[in-house]
Amino acid sequence: MKSTPLYSIKHKRLKKFTMRKDHYDGQNALNRFSAEVSLDNRLDTQSLNKMVNNLVWDSKKWMVSPDEIIIFTNRIEIHWYAKAFQMVVTQEQYLELIQEFISFIKNIQNFKLTFLERCLIEDPNRLVWSAPNEVIQFNTSFCTSCFCLNEHETRVLFLNERLEGVA
Fold first, then answer.
1. 7, 64, 76, 144 - which has most CB atoms within 10 Å?
2. Going by DSSP bridges, is the β-strand pair 75-81/68-71 parallel, antiparallel, or unpaired?
3. The Cα angle at residue 14 between residues 11 and 20, in degrees rounded to 5
4. Three-class SS of residue 56?
5. pTM over 0.70
6. In terms of DSSP H, where are the helices of the chain?
7. CA 147, 126, 156, 149 torsion-angle sign
């Protein structure tokens, strides 16, 4: 695996991060984009439950609903999976898509979502070699036709022992 440093000049003060070249090599379909919300461990269980319920409820109204919300002890991860075979074939095209996603999460009200850079170094899991051209989407953008496998059906996983049985 070869990694490439990525710099963004379009998004102010976005730190450099590393992405895998095989995410935009024309051989692998995109997997997902992710964001996270840090949790204040001083929150009592009732406040934490209210925050989680608000996040789940609000996420249904977002332009692109997430596929998965995972509540950990110290953070909440939110994942948007790519539909079918979403492809980017150049680093510039990938950067534009990342910028679209970052703009999307920055515009979400009531929650301070941050880009979870780990999604840029995950193994791509879908080769397109055997996929017919008509199912490969080359004009990928961050929208419901390209992301959100189960529109308006977000899976919520609780890995926070304070919230077991809540929701």
1. 76
2. antiparallel
3. 105
4. helix
5. yes
6. 45-59, 91-106
7. positive
